[in-house]
Input
Amino acid sequence: MRPKARAILRPLAPSTYLLRNAGKTIPLTGVIMLAVMLVSSIIAMIDSIPYSIRVIYGYSKEMMGLTPRGDTYQTPKILADISKNSPVPIGREMIIRASSSQVRSIVGKWPFVMVGLKQDDFAYYLARQNSKGIEGRLPKAGAPEAVVSKPVAKNLSLKIGSVIQGPDLNESYSPQEVKVVGIADTDRWLMVNSIEYQRANHFPPMDLGMVFAKNRADQDKLDHWANKHFKRQRAQVWAYYKVEQQTQDMFKTLFQILNVVVAVLAVVITFMMGMLMNIYQTQRLVEFGLLQAIGYTKRQLVRRVMMESIAVVILGWVFGVVMSYGMLVVAKKVLMDPNAYALDLFDQRAFNYTVPIPFAILLCAIGTVYFRFLKFDPVSVVERRLV
Amino acid sequence: MIQATGATLEYSDQGRPVFACQNIDLQVSSGQYVGILGPSGSGKSSLLYLLSGLKLPTSGEVLYNGQNLKEMHEDARSRLRLKEFGFVFQQPYLLGYLSALENVLVATPKNNNPRKALALLEDLGLGHKSHRLPHELSGGERQRVCVARALIAEPNVIFADEPTAALDHRNGVAVVELLNRLRGGGSLVIVTHDPTMLTEADRVIRIVEGAIQRTDAVDRGVAV
Output
């Protein structure tokens, strides 16, 4: 019986070599995968620090804080000025008080603000912070009671009845034990109690202002306008864009150092991969010599190596990104979430950092083969001088 | 078809000029079977590389169908080898990750015909082993796969450089006979040091120290 002519039609397709030489291609892919995973994980974890700051202070996206300077009684005047001159419609202006508290972050304790509100401002404030409801109740006027949001409760392991400020808590001091009476259902980090309690128990004796743009989309415009409007005036503006700026400034040096570390890492990995690729291709000189001898051009062979290298590098990069994502999911679940620490699983910057590595490896691989081919004589192979 | 005129291949060995081939005048006509005979190191393989464009003469010229191989672009010479020539080398080099059938197909990248490749392997007695990898074949079988690879594109000239070197005498004779039988209308140039392999040759060229010493023409009804 005549045997069936089963054979792949393109025996020199890059996929054929890669699939049939898994023992060689898997380690190469694995090294690239590990390199990508290492870089993206490091960056994502370090990025989680500024990301945490943005998440923890994310409540300030919804409003602008105002503190008087040099005159503690300026706040009503400041608010009146905004009402009169604001370039965007104002949703609400509030007189508030603030006292210091703390939350835990991946790099230690961070200062946080307990906002003292008037009774008729609670509902508006919580609604603007996307609260879908509240477990428990709102604080009573003048009572040592507070509402926290879910992330804060998780972060500080608070339940209804837990003490959030008190005489024994040095960094969250209050003369009386302030107990949690409600937990707001929102992703925002919040601590609120009554303005009357704060006026009676906290220093400094100074009312502050809080202004909400009527439309959320206008808040940033209002913030920038106010900052410009009150420049050199007796008012200080607190806005989310300033948090962003300060965070960037704070981590600028750290990220410069990180850039150098990642660059060194990329060079080391590329050099290592270049040597690996060199060994890998050297083992194939007989194949290249034979193909060149029977009539394949150098260009065809370089193109083939290039396609194979691209496939290996893309596979390594994709697996690296997937593995990195998997590792971050585990880290978030095991390490971050129980403490409500923030970690961005889709950190664009972390993945951007991994892009130069496959390109550098690819260039190194193709360069190695190209320079080998420049002086490569297939006769040296078929005459067995290179075997 | 192939015309070498004053073809010389010179290289330097520690500053001393060495002539692998000297002043070779040779013509290989269409359909002709030419044997190149000589002792080891006599330059017979170098002559084959010159005739096939794998090496270029340092002086003189080699023409294929009127085209000077030296004046052709390297890529054009490569394409010429792939389309017009077939090669069988001393060692039965095959790509280890491809089956016998796929190794044959390597020589026809743009006109793949697995049925034709299989038919060739059957003619060579390897039909039942067409899907085996090279390490699953004996040395003689591997060399027969190389023969199939050289024949698949129906080349105008087949160059065989000591194709029997890695085989025992019986297998060697079989491979040479197969090349001669299956070459169709193509020319065949075989380099060997064993005169018993060339009993069917139209011409036998004896080469010593890079120069043609003698040409024995055998009249088999083809141009000599």
Chain A has a mean pLDDT of 90. The first strand of chain A starts at residue 64 and ends at 68.
